[in-house]
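User: Before I run my own analysis I want an independent prediction to cross-check against. Here's the chain; please return only the structure tokens and, at the end, one sentence I can use as a sanity check.
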Amino acid sequence: MIPFMMDPLSHALTGAAIKQMGFRRKAALGVLLLSSLAPDFDYVTRFWGMDTFLRYHRGITHGVLALVVVPLVIAFIFGFKKGFVYYFSLSLLGYGTHLCMDLTNQYGTRILAPLDWEQYSLDLSFIVDPYIIIGLLVCVVLGRRFRKKASLIAAVTLLLLVSYFGMRYYLHNRAEDFLRANLDANTYKMCPLPNDFLRWWFVARSGDEFITGFADLFTRRVCVQERYVNNLKDPYVMRSKTDKVVESFLYFAKYPHAEVKSEGGNVVVVWRELAYSFRAGEHFATKVFFDKNGRIVKSEFSF
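Assistant: Structure tokens:
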């Protein structure tokens, strides 16, 4: 759960850093913080269960319609009497920056919702990037310590942030080119690893087989971790797809794989999102439990 608890921190710090760029009106900080965090108001869906959160997080609140509507609402609240255009522009900047930052990691964002519900991601950084958080935190602290140079500090920080993503984009493409030259497959997905730059997790697909592993630019090696054969025609796998938790999981997952196991004499179907399978244990996974008569007893999702 930690990634989803910490992610708003990077967005809040981004809003505070943008404020240092010279926006001096009294409500500017409040508007930027609110608009920078507003897309994640869909966290409220967690009250209806983790599977519901999985289905709707980074959905409509992260789409182009919300990008226009929510800043209009924020501008109306703060600038009804004076400064509507100013606060709309400010909230549009904060909201848009949030969506752009979310696009950089591999979780997936339905940026074109409700026109298009496809997930898009640049796969440049992990869900939580400590280097981004530390850099923005230093910017805010130094900005408060050296108020006369706050605008310069913020400008340099935001420029470095853009350069950081540019560097990761370059390394992402280098890693994919290296993988393509050393592994024959039909499709390739490169996934960033936490606190790593030269080593990338990959999911490749060749026919009915998924191949996962690491592409290491430092050692110049491709290490295949696992090979998964598609078993979607298994009767237990097919039956598990009728479960609402699995339905939400499959709505989210781009590279799902199901495995049939036996636990305590009963059958369990475990669905995994292979893009996160480098993590030890069962993360981004859904388990469906069947009784001895082949009926679904319960299901659960774990981050």
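Sanity check: DSSP finds nine helices and eight strands in the chain.
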